[in-house]
User: Fold Methylthioribose-1-phosphate isomerase from Azospirillum picis.
Amino acid sequence: MRIDGTAYRTIWPEEDGSIAIIDQTRLPHDFSVVRLTTLDEAAHAIRAMLVRGAPLIGAAAAYGVALALRTDSGDAGLEGACATLLATRPTAVNLRWALERMRARLLPLPESQRVAAAEAEAAAIADEDVEINRAIGGHGAALIRAIAGRKAPGEPVNVLTHCNAGWLATVDWGTALAPVYAAFEQGIRLHVWVDETRPRNQGASLTAWELRHHGVPHTVIADNAGGHLMQHGKVDLCIVGTDRTTASGDVCNKIGTYLKALAAHDNGIPFYVGLPSPTIDWRIEDGLRQIPIEERDGREVSELTGRTADGRIETVRVTPDGSPVSNYAFDVTPARLVTGLITERGVCAATREGLLGLFPEQA
Assistant:
């Protein structure tokens, strides 16, 4: 996607062998590229959320394995790298998927071939993610186009999204926002309501930033404003991302997604999920009981970071000293509240039967 007219991916290999990433902890006030050279640096980038979003976490982990094998390409080095990276984030299934794919590709090879093979496989995972998300964009844009056809001439399609499931959460294009970008490129008039998404404000700081740089009309709203907008006919559809989706269609995404799904259901508004297939966890059925929910540092709730009027970046505390803080990072939206899953193979019902209709090889 574009930043001031220049096309970027979120992660890419450099000629010197390092892996370049956009440091998302510094956005929206500072666009900074960081270069990863070791396993520890890759693990830190995932854990500290310099890179985040399920698809991008998977790609970063794959590149992390490649970096690790430059130091130790033996079985112990490979297994240790996978264990270190797997421990960085518990919820997004793409992390485990990418590491299992790297391990399966590399273990049968002699040590002398592993570094080159790891670099090639990581690049393949990144390239495949781009094409998966591009396809999601095409299928989702058709839904937006259909709604546009029912609106009065000149009226935009109003899309509400939660957190950041745009190109910053993937290698390129995004999941929930891929349909928005595809529709925008097709000339469909649209507008995006951007939930601020506390904690970490990933909607206000990341989604708004990338939409602005790409030229997509949007408005940042408080998290609790979505239901009000739906009640007053100002939302045509919701599209969110997912960090893990069960084989039965339950969707785990950034905390607050469930509340948006409830409001959409109550107001008869379609609620779609942009779903790349590596994010489907075919091993589990019950999202509420089987998906581990990450609990993060309470300071993400009790503190806010922003830019002051004189240009300084400052962090301030917004809760009373001594008040306990809980910080659940994700929630689970039951399949019954999901209108449809937008995958790279098409749109399906949020059911086992719907998913298997598009992915019969998983039966």
About this structure: The CA atoms of residues 66 and 120 lie 9 Å apart.
